[in-house]
Each structure stands twice: as C-alpha cells, then as structure tokens.
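Recall the central idea of this unit: under ordinary conditions, the amino acid sequence of a chain determines the structure it adopts. In this exercise we apply that idea directly, starting from the sequence alone.
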Amino acid sequence: MIIKKINNQQLPEFIIIGGGPAGITTAIQLGRKNKSVLLIEAGDTEFDEEIQSYYKGKVTGDRYYPLDVTRLRYLGGSSNHWGGNCAPLDKSDLDQWPINYEELKNFEKETKDILEIKNDFIKYDKSIFDSFRLSSIEDGYINFREKYFDEIKNSKNISLLLKTSVLYLEPNTESNKVIYIHINSQNKFEKINLNKNSKVLIACGGIENSRLLLWSKEMAKNKFLKGLPIGKYWMEHPSGEIGHLIGEKEKVEKVFKKKNYFLVPSENFLKSEKINNIRFSVQFWEKTDQENYKHFIKDLICLAPMYGKKIVESLSNQVVHCVSAIKFSIEQKPNVDNSINLSKNEFDKYKIPQVNLKWKIKEDVFRTLKTGLERLGEESIEKDIGRVGIDKYVYEQTFKNSDDIFANHHHMGGTIMSNKENVGVVDENLKVKNISNLYVIGSSVFPTGGHFNPTFTIVQLSLRLVRHLTT
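Accordingly, the structure predicted from this sequence is:
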C-alpha cells in the first residue's frame, strides 16, 4: 500500500531505505513471506529534476560521469536506465568474499526468474584461443518499478512512503543499535521511532549507502559506526574501446560464436599472470569509408608487412576484411584511495554534505590490459584470425589524454563485506558490524567486483539476506 505518513505506533518489523533493485527485491520477498515492511523512497514514481539534484557531488581523479547523472533518485532506481545485461560473477571473483560461489549459486534460478532470463549462462566455454574462454551475458532487462509497483500498491504487508529523504540514523546511548530514523517527508521534518524488534536495511545504492552512514556517524555524539572503513575501497568497471582487430570478418565472427559471447581469460591465464578478470568483445565498423580503409591498411603494412600485403591482394578477390573495435570491461582491484567522502563546503537542500568521490584507474588495470591484449594479438596471429592494434593509453598507463570516460555506471564497494577485523563494514550476513539491527544491501557490499554487471549479484544477495532474516 502507498502511505502518506508514518504511524510510529504500528511500525513494521523491517524498514528498507531505498527503492531500487536491491530494496524492491528485498521488500517484495519479505512481503510474500508475510513480513511487515516499510519501504522508504526518496523520489517519486517518476523523474523529478529537483529531487534528482540531491545527487550532485564532485569527482576527483580520473574523468567520470556527473554524480547526478550516473544514478537516479526515484522508484526503481538504476533499473530505470540500465541496459539489462546480466551475468553471475565467476568463481574466482569470490576468492576474497566471506561467502562462497556455491552459496550464491543457490539463488541463481530464482534471480533468473526475477530478471526474466530464459537462457542458461555460458561459463568458460572452449574458444579458438588457448588463453581465452567464452562466457555469455544474457538480457535481463526489467524495470523494477514497472514490474512490482502494482504488487507493492496492493500489498497488505508492504507500506511504500514516497518523496521521503532519510537524513541520518540515530543510535542508542550504547551506540550498538539504531533507535531513530530522521527523515524529511513531503517537506516536513520527522523522526521515526523504532521499536525493539525493528530492523533497518539500507538499500540506497553504491554511492548513497556510504553517504548515509558517513553522515550518521558524524551526527552521532558517541562511538556509533566509528572505526569502520565506510566509503573505502570504492570500485567501478573501467570499460570502453581499447584497440582494433583487422581480419576476415567470417573468421572474427566465428571466434565469438554469438553476439552475447565474450572472450575472458582462462583460469590458468588468470592465475599464472596474476591479472584482473576482464572480458573482450569486438564491434564491427561496417561503414568504414574508403579513405579510412586506406589509413588502416597503411598502418597495418607498417606493423605487419606480410599480413598487410595479404589484405591488399585479397581486396580484388572480394574477401571481406573488417576493422573492428576491441571493447573491454575489467575488474578494478579494491584500493583504499578510491573512496566516497563527505564534502566540507557543498551541501544539499537539507544541509547534508554532498559526496566527494575519489576515483582513479590504477596500474593493475593497465597491466591487465597490456597482458591480455598482447596475448590476444599473439594468438590471433597463431590462429590466422587477424592482427590486433593496441591503443597508446595502455602503454601510457593513463586515460587522461582521451576525451572518453572509461567507466560503466557500476558503483561498487564503500561498505564492503568481510569477517576480518578492521576490513569490512558489514559481515557475511550484511549486518553492519557492532550494530544489532542495521543491514546494508546492494553492490556497495561487494569486496571485489569482477567484470560482469552487478545487478544479477545484487538480486542474489538480496534473496540470501531475506532467507537469513526469515529463518
């Protein structure tokens, strides 16, 4: 049901802050299990420019998207503008997680049902290359707002409070439990009084989760949230075009088999070279004009005389050669310097500090690109597929001379999961350490990010949390 105000006398057992994929999935599953839920969403059911402006912030480091563009502040969250690409993380991606691959895989079928994915995922299928395998991404495009709004509206167990910003959380005097949630609802400041059994679940997104916790820590007059690495180890998936492949189109197409297949490092290549997980694909430049072909062939003849000669001679026999862009998406290793911080001089309408995101693509990314592309080039020659050209940024180890943004709108880390002392913000069950009734959901809990889009794993973790909270 949709409500206009809070009834502190009949407060539900679960209060979920944020109505994106994580928050909606969790609310729906708890509601279906006959649990009472309050879902608080800062935005409305449609985009509102003023509400969206609360996401403004500053980025220092590498070029990145404006923070009020890379995320959305209304019901459905990122699912209102995502591309729908889905895949579970690889087994090796979870090496630093406190939960194992099989535990997450238990929720794969249910997650596929939620995201309406029909096909099975391909993992490490044999490819023509020795050092690379094939993995697939499937289309799971659903808009969580559109899919679940009617169920939420008609639910007896879920109460939806729209246009309500959570300002900060207030703890008890022992600083081990949240007892109040300070909000602004419909332009009115209020305080939600939690009962002794209330559990608070933060699902505001991969940037805002950290912001809310950081501000709550600053507002507290005791040890609440002190000592936790909130905002640290923030990650993205650096991505973009990083080179080109010249070869016979038919041969190149056979490498990938299908359009949704990608080349990924074999497990042996990944471990022996100690590189980040990464995926490569190609995009054909079908309409390259004659002058551009001359340019590429000239460069190719300089770099690979015999192969360039072969292409020139084959043009008269109408063998179709292609120039294709090599695209990548890569894991970014967690680094404490990449972090979400609170601004000292920029504030939103409610006097809450805006975010200052520090983000830089480090050496591990460029070393992986160099190692991966050079190996791809070597094996493309061995298998007579074509020739690989690598962009200068790989060797310069910086994208600062490019006008492009090498990122993916994938916000991970900041409240990472770990059972190790002084490392994580949440434990394996996503409970904030030392706080008895506070949990965090979403990609901000990822200790590492792999290279696949995070939504599939977000839904898996949400389902796992529901099981933990209800058993």
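The CA atoms of residues 59 and 357 lie 5 Å apart.
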